[in-house]
Amino acid sequence: MTSAPTARPGSAVGLGFLKLGSGEAIARIVAFGATVYLARSLGAGVYGVIVLATAILLYLNFLTDCGVDALGVREVAAAPDAVPDLLPSVLGARLLVGTALALVTIAVGLTLLPQPEGAILAAYALTLPVIGLGTRWVHLGYEQPGRASLARLVTELAMVALVLALVHAPGDLEHVPLAQVVGEGVGALVLLRLLPARLRRLPVRLEVERVRTLFRASWPLILHALLGLAIFNSDFIFLRVFRDSAAVGLYAAAYTLISFFLNLGATYTMTLLPVITRLRDDAVASKALYDDSLAQVLAVALPVAVGGYLVGPGIVDMVFGRGYLASSAPLQVLIWSIPVALIRNVAQGALIAHQRQDQLMHTAAWAAATNVVLNIAFIPRWGLVGAASATLLTEVLRTTLAVIYTARLGLRLPGPMRFARIAAAVTGLAVLVVLTRHLPLLATIAAGATGYAVLLVLVGALRFRRGAIPEFAP
Predict the structure, then answer these.
(1) Do the bridges between strand 462-463 and strand 471-472 make them parallel or antiparallel, or are there none, so unpaired?
(2) Rounded distance between C-alpha atoms, residue 432 and residue 447, angstroms
(3) The whole model's pTM is what?
(4) Pairwise CA distance, residues 397 & 369, whole Å
(5) DSSP 8-state symbol, 350
(6) Which of 29, 143, 200, 222 is the one with CA 20 to 30 A from 329?
């Protein structure tokens, strides 16, 4: 009797990403629709209040998380039996941090900041304790990404439903943070309800010492995340200083189109983390997983970059209109940061699994400093393209450092021949896109995507086995 094929570890990551990534993708599309609706309903001036408040909230979210979204996944994957002891104290620690940050933010927002920005930020701060009670990390550590995906989708759907019901004009501004608070609350409840019964009955414990212990372990990850946000914000700040607000808007449009894939890269890291943690003491299996993961991300990122570069102006015109065509040039530079960043996402997963979050912090620190220097040098002379070039070079540096650190763990980049079949299929995609550029944009994209999928099979890059999901051939 023939036994079922043994799935490679990379297949588990790929399947997990399909579950988590599909939910994330749908949720982000829903959120994007809500963003467009709010921008149109509130008007540019009032919508700017929301943008400012949510930008500040991102920093507070990372502080509230305490690095648990990454470290927690690693700890659960490494020691599943310890979760009943770990969960109550971690939730208590994050609840304490989130509540303290919320109280400070509310006080500052209502008394020191200009209005209505301060009041809106204060309302958004009510999401911080809810984020502290999030258990997404437990489900991912148990390698149950479908549950995390479901909760994320429920969060966005609840938020959008309230936005559509309550926000119709600039005077409805205060309802926007309310919708976010409710959406986050519903998502947190879904995640709690989906926990195993023995975990749902555990009480939350507030332990100050646990907060100290958590921050001692996670502060490099927190700083890494904050520096990453600073790198993102740096472009906009220097464009406003050296150019004008219109340049900021054009650059934001270009960045919006690639941020979807950059966020999916971060999602891939979360699905990789529990598997590579489980295999970290097996050098051969870890290396095979690392190589497979790089093949998976490049099989997605390279065609997006090549195809996006070729049809970038058409995409900008279709999504934002002819008034944003100046966004095309920076988009065609920024889009190459997608494969670079996704390579780094794989390396980051390996570093966190091996408890080297300090090295992640070093990569972000060097990148942030370099980004400032490059922006000052490039933006006055080359404007939007200069800002995009500074971002791309920063991503290359950040990824190079992460890859060097990962190589010291014995996880070196495979040779270029590992990706030769994928490169051949991407070359074919480029030819198809060029040959069909006279067609409507969506037809060109469909032809390129379909042709690429067929070419992956024809060149042997994609391998099918009975009883297993398709794998990328070594």
Answers:
(1) antiparallel
(2) 7
(3) 0.78
(4) 11
(5) H
(6) 29
Measured CA to CA, the distance from residue 101 to residue 133 in angstroms comes to 14
Rounded to the nearest 5 percent, the helix, strand and coil shares of the chain are 85, 0, 15
Nearest to 141 by CA among 355, 353, 361, 402: 353
Domain locations along the chain: 1-206, 218-414, 416-474
If we measure between CA atoms, which residue out of 5, 79, 6, 9 comes closest to residue 346?
Answer: 9
Position of tokens 């489900």?
139
Residue 68 is encoded by which pair of tokens? Answer: 């648990």
Stretch among 82-96, 100-114, 205-219, 274-288 having the lowest mean pLDDT: 205-219
Does 196 sit behind a cis peptide bond, omega within 30 degrees of 0 on the bond before it? no
- Structural contact between residues 357 and 218, judged by C-beta atoms closer than 8 angstroms: yes
Q: What is the pLDDT of residues 281-305, one digit of tens each?
A: 888 888 988 988 898 899 999 999 9
Contacts of 279 (CB under 8 A, 6+ apart): 9, 285, 286, 289
C-alpha to C-alpha distances, 365 to 121, 280, 401, nearest whole angstrom:
28, 26, 11
Distance (Å, whole) CA 224 – CA 400: 16
Which tokens in the block code for residue 130? Answer: 């809810």
Q: Rounded to whole angstroms, how far apart are CA atoms 259 and 256?
A: 5
pLDDT band at 2 (very low <50, low <70, confident <90, very high): very low
How many C-beta atoms lie closer than 10 Å to residue 43's C-beta? 12
